[in-house]
Amino acid sequence: MKLILDVKQMSEMKETSANSKKSKDDFEPKIIAFTCNWCSYAGADLAGVSRFQYPPNIRIIRLMCTGRLEPEIVVKALSHGADGVLILGCHIGDCHYLTGNHRTKKRIAILKRILSYRGIDPRRVKLDWVSAAEGYRFAKIVTEFTNEIRRSGPNPLKELA
Amino acid sequence: MIGKIRELAKRWIAEGKTDAIFGLKEENGHVAPNLFIKKSELERLVISPNYSLCYTLRPKNSNIFSLLERKYPNLKIGVVVRGCNERALFELAKRDQVDLERIEILGIACTKEEALECRCPKPYPQNLLVGERVEGVTNDDNVEALLKKTLPERLAFWNHEFSKCIKCYGCRNVCPMCFCQDCRMEKEQWVKTGVLPPEDPIFHFIRFYHISERCIECGECEKACPVDIPLLTISKLLRRDIKELFDYEAGLDVKQESPLLTTLDETLIKRGE
Amino acid sequence: MMYYKSVLTTCPYCGCGCNFYLQVLDGELVGVLPCKSHVTNQGKLCIKGWNAHEYVFSKDRLTKPLINQGGRFVEISWEEALNIVVKKFKDYIDNYGPEIFGVLSSAKCTNEENFLLMKFTRAVLGTNNVDHCARLCHASTVVGLSQTFGSGAMTNSIGELEKANCILVIGSNTTEQHPLVARYILRAVEKGAKLIVADPRAIHLVKFADYHIQQRPGTDVALLNGFMNVILNLGLEDREFISERTEDFEELKKVIENYPPAYVEKITGVSKDDLIDSAKTFAIANLASIVYSMGITQHTTGVDNVTSCANLAMLTGNVGKRSTGVNPLRGQVNVQGACDMGALPNVYSGYQNVTDEKIRIKFEKAWNVELPSKPGLTVVEMINEAKKGSIKIMYVMGENPMLSNPDINHVKEGLNNLEFLVVQDIFLTDTAKLANVVLPAASYAEKDGTFTATDRLVQRIEKAITPIGESKPDWQIICELARRMRSNQFEYTSPAEIMDEIASVTPIYGGITYKRLEKDGLRWPCISKEHPGTLYLHKEKFTRGKGRFFGIDYKEPAELPDEEYPFILTTGRIMFHFHTGTMSRRTRLLNREVQTGYVEINPHDAEKLEIHDGEPVSVKSRRGEIKVKALKTNRVPEKVIFIPFHFAECAANVLTNPALDPVAKIPEYKVCAARVEKLSDTI
Q1: Concatenated DSSP letters for A9-49?
Q2: Is the pTM above the cut of 0.90?
Q3: What class has domain A28-155?
Q4: Does residue B71 sit in the same domain as residue B43?
């Protein structure tokens, strides 16, 4: 399953013991972003081409549709070193597969509740919509989310592993 | 009340309304599910302690009703159900795991004591035939305690609880809503196999997420856990959330589609779409 | 005819004795449902119990008797098979006498079957050479607790652990081996009880312990003497209990004086402070319980280890009260029962000595035959004698010494040297593959009978389906053989009748009948039809009157590491498989969890040898060599490796040392010397 390997590889970046002892000021969050091929990934491309700046903390994974994303993958990402997970799909009504993002919206809503009961901050998972033309919006969302996670601090699940 | 239930069951068999009655049988002080075919056997029909009637028999991965339906296409069974059993049947029917046309529901109400013991929100079935409705339990101590905890406190609490887990799969085995042939909890690629305690949080998360909109709050998962993990707490909270987010309560309306199978404006997403 | 029913029976795996309902639809096993009203498991099961029905209908089940014709197994009829066996038995008795027989009974078979097999061996074959796998696990318990308390069984019952104030778990990986016992230990901890776990490995239970005592393998006597030294020095012993209920305290005191914490630290590796703190915690607790298993028993000093546990319990007055006691956790489902039924070379049922003339006369009268008076051979001794040629025929029921005995290569030589081997089992095990005749037996789901759990609870198993193919319940096979050997003492129409005979000659089972077992089982001693059974032992007095202290000195294990073999190899079990794997490795979910064996090695040791996680390595000992994959883990301390023994393709027992405890004759599975090497040609 290539997707799982990508997540594992990307978020399991070599953490030396020095890194894990960094103070909150030095903390640089690792963000995984799941994007969809038709809208948000294209939007990310556009942000790059247009030279809109966004923090380098992010690792982008391209899916055909966010409706393909099982919430288990998000939990795996959080368990394997991601401090935040960003899920960006097409705007409601614009999904290339018509109702894929409907499913995403409902699933992520349930996922966030389960995370909050488990004791994991649900704000570490963010679902938003970015169209292929919204390069600036992409960069803005990523920047804001990265700053927010930086403020929240490292993911406490890391100590579990 | 048990006398009335037995009488009704006997009548159903005598009148040919059903070919058999599915319920609990008492023998030497022990109680277990049984298919009563003769009227005389019904003297041993009891209703307590409750067992999960529709749990999935493995490795066939079907509940008993589905197995009987396949083997005996013309069979009509009367089933003695409490509120929770009926909710399970409704949810299973929605997913083609049970054919309600071939089941006659003999609904019985739980007593106040029984409702309190199971912390049940709706201790009576819709097809209630014997017994008086009592109020369900709305406040739950474990749920309140969890909600009062801060996020770090909740994390520490569940880290401790789930570290006791011995991967018996009892919570999944006894749940009427868990019937996948290919259960994700068993898969190496999601949960490292052969390790105790099982990989946390993914192992338990898979179950909570997969049953989130189907959970009927029967509490059997918590009762089956050998190390007393308070699993029902999260299930109860999720059930409240499903109601809040999607105005859906599992097991109440056999016609209402599961919210994860509908679009945001509640149109059913047909299979293959 | 259509029917669906739930048949209440006892789980066939471990000694917890959980009950569940086998779900039967039209004569087919379709599932398992735990019994909510059972005193021990209360509606819960472990992963093995939940899947205990699956191996019953495995396509590997033996369905017809087999005869070995030049390496090939050919199916024959029961008539032929039984006649072949009986003729061989009769010929050899006539030509060589009965002492050339060795019989292995089964801790997986029912009480009735064990009783009949030992009766057959003694009354029909005429020898006391009958033993079973308890020799390999709790023989030291039977000797150790008999000599200290007078009775070799678990003193209290499983459920009582919940109310203990302090529990010392020594040499038991309880959450993995006896999950439903661990349930009560964890409940006690939730209620505030103190938990001390003494184990060389960082087992799962350690997460919930107040103290993890990581002693070197084989140093338990020193550790326990250290505990007692601390307790005596702090004046925390129970003086009243010692003076009123025990004898030979001075013997103990003399030896304990030589084990101060500093000296114990040198031997065991356990820090002085940990030793003192945990000893104090144990001694000041109101109700303290000792739970132990293979880590204590499977040593050349097994009896000494068990005796030291008993010493500690008596010193602190923790025997004969609820929620206290010395609690050996028996591994197999009916190993307690097999011992109770006298499938042992030196006792009849109920631990009545074969050398005691009065007892022997009682049995001679009951069975109308003269009985041999010389105690027989034990399991490992039988194999040794088979190799020498003095044991020529072995009859093995439900045992697999080719995987469970130590030094497997030697076992193979021994069994191959036999002139005739009969194996009665449900699968063609590695042992059965060496047999001349294989008899197909019925599983637990296909017969009636009783099992005795580790806490002396005798309970029923019930027939749920008809035996597969032509397999027969073991008791019927034994009766057939006996009848053909002209014995009229085996006319039983049901296991209930066998139990009636057991009750008539076995005082501790005296009050047990099938009718009385119907509701909740009975815990022995149950001496008469009115007796309600006994929850915990030694209440007002010990079975032998007064408890006896023994002054035990520490002795080193038989084989310690040296330059050539620098690691301590310790063996054991895991949650997902069971013993020789004949049942668990035929279960889908259990195989999915763990497919094959591994060797646990500490990361520091692995790095020094440049071994990566998952890499196949060679593990060698003076007995042999196996290839197995490495598992880097901090669970084992440095210089110690652990291999689970369930897997025939990388069998830990190829390496283990058949050195025996001098009295109990139990092998030292827990300590031997080994070396680990990278494989010279990597794939």
Answers
A1: HHH-----HHHHT--TTT----EEEEEETTTHHHHHHHHHH
A2: yes
A3: alpha beta
A4: yes
